[in-house]
Amino acid sequence: MDTERLREQMDSNYWSAAYLAHAILKPWLQPPRGDITKPTIPQPPRHLIFTASVLSFYPIVGYTQYAPAKAALRSLSDSLIQELNLYHPTTSPTIRISTIFPATIFSPGYTQENLSKPQVTKHLEEDDGGQTPDEVAAISVRALEKGEYLITTGLLGSAMRGAAWAGSPRNSRVRDTLMTWITSLAWLFVQPDMDRKVRKYGKKHGHPSTYPAGAAPSP
Known about the structure:
The protein is mainly α and 219 residues long.
């Protein structure tokens, strides 16, 4: 992967969202004109929604150009949700932030992606059944309507999120904390298994520089 491609991915997946957030939050949070001690007409609530990826929680081989940008987007989301605590609801509108983390989506982009995706990546993704765009949209909308913050669209994504909650606000303190405990134990076995699969693949097929251009050999 050349460095220009790495920068392009950061521009399209992180900076585009960061610039949008900067552009929209600035007018949303503009202090009211005139005497702020006087009652003002309440402003309607606003909602800023980012779309990241489950790779924000655990990147795998083949997404080195993509996953860091999505992880940065999650960090931006966490930062902004804290910054919004600085603004009092009597002088600023109520602003919610949510970030959606889909996994594999069967879209034209996915078809195009698979033309050059390393075979080892496809091997690691075998347990990810994938979803249609409509399925992802329906699950996301339901979660947004419930007021969730970090939203995953499938069981695998929820497990990955559970192992990576860290200090992010939880959708449910009890349920998500229990998921964190469970997946933290599971990850003691999952992560070494993933690494073992990659090492085995590398041992079988040799140095990546020997792979055919555009794709790696089948496992």
